[in-house]
Design brief:
The protein is mostly helical. The protein has helices at 2-23, 29-50, 62-88, 91-98, 101-113, 119-146, 151-173, 179-200, 212-238, 241-248, 251-263, 269-287. Residues 144-148 have low confidence and may be disordered.
């Protein structure tokens, strides 16, 4: 069952990127992140009350709470970097770099959870790495030719780093807590972090300037993220992090498909080969 939740997480995560991109054409990415987190917080706590897990709050020990807070902070940092990268670059430029967090997650899972890596799994990791390299390489060359700003690359790398930490800290923080409650608590941490960033950067007034159209897209992306989160951490609770994380990264297929339909972003043959390798490696990780 955890594998189905992982697949659901991938789908909603892929949709999130498209909706978010539509919502930050004129709206600042940090402001948009803060607004959409409000939607996610409401969504996540609604689920908590639906499954009646709110009574477990009093049973959360100090260690679990610390890891949930750290995981929430890592998620917040990853989001801020990711949506800033999306605002600066094309989706097909940002997403492959963000997905490189899979490799680091696997390494950290091996260290902290002793989740063994067999020879077939190692081969799958190599396939994922090769696929990401092919997609990133094409985008870097394209960026130089266009002579545009490459700031998105730094933010995308930051997103990947914090995303990998999110998976590991999240795994540690949900070992003794119902997954939906854990997600809701982490979302509260992200909310505080996002709005602090808005206040510190002096962008509070920009919230009122968001157009109705972009606000709708931002809120929809928040709902999609909430659904992805609930699926992802439910999968993490029952399944191995070294498998759940790669399956979640299959969201790139959804993202690439919709980026072509919505934004007309196309892949070259080299990038398509990279996507194929990344997908094959991810599926192999899930099956091995």
């Amino acid at each position: 069952m955890w594998l189905l939740f992982a697949v659901g997480s991938a789908f909603f995560a892929g949709v999130t990127s498209i909706l978010a991109k539509c919502g930050i054409k004129k709206t600042d990415s940090t402001v948009a992140t803060a607004v959409r987190t409000v939607v996610i917080l409401i969504f996540s706590w609604l689920i908590v009350f639906i499954v009646s897990s709110q009574n477990q709050i009093k049973d959360i020990d100090g260690k679990t709470l610390i890891f949930l807070i750290l995981s929430g902070a890592a998620t917040g940092a990853s989001w801020l970097c990711y949506f800033k990268a999306l605002q600066l670059g094309n989706i097909n430029k940002v997403v492959p770099i963000d997905k490189s967090s899979t490799i680091l997650t696997i390494i950290l899972a091996l260290i902290f959870f002793q989740e063994g890596v067999s020879l077939p799994k190692a081969a799958a990791v190599v396939g994922i790495a090769a696929g990401i390299f092919l997609m990133i390489e094409k985008k870097d060359v394209s960026e130089k030719k266009e002579g545009t700003k490459a700031g998105w690359f730094i933010y995308a790398c930051g997103s990947a780093l914090f995303a990998s930490l999110t998976a590991i800290l999240g795994k540690m923080g949900i070992s003794g807590i119902e997954s939906n409650l854990g997600t809701a608590i982490r979302t509260a941490v992200v909310l505080v972090m996002a709005w602090v960033m808005v206040a510190v950067t002096g962008k509070t007034k920009e919230v009122k300037e968001i157009s109705t159209k972009e606000m709708i897209f931002i809120c929809c992306s928040g709902i999609a993220t909430g659904a992805s989160w609930l699926c992802y951490y439910r999968a993490l609770q029952d399944g191995p992090a070294s498998v759940v994380a790669p399956v979640d990264k299959l969201s790139i297929l959804v993202t690439v498909a919709f980026s072509y339909i919505v934004f007309g972003e196309k892949l070259t043959k080299k990038s398509a080969l990279g996507l194929l390798l990344l997908t094959a490696g991810t599926i192999a990780m899930a099956l091995l």
